[in-house]
Amino acid sequence: MAESERPRTEQRTEQRMRPAPLLFEPAEATADPEHFFDLESIEDPRELLDRATELTHAFRAATDRSIEFQAMAAAQLADPRRFDRLTPALIAERAEWTEDYAKKMVEYGRDLMRGGADKH
Question: How far is CA 68 from the centre of its chain?
Answer without folding.
Answer: 7
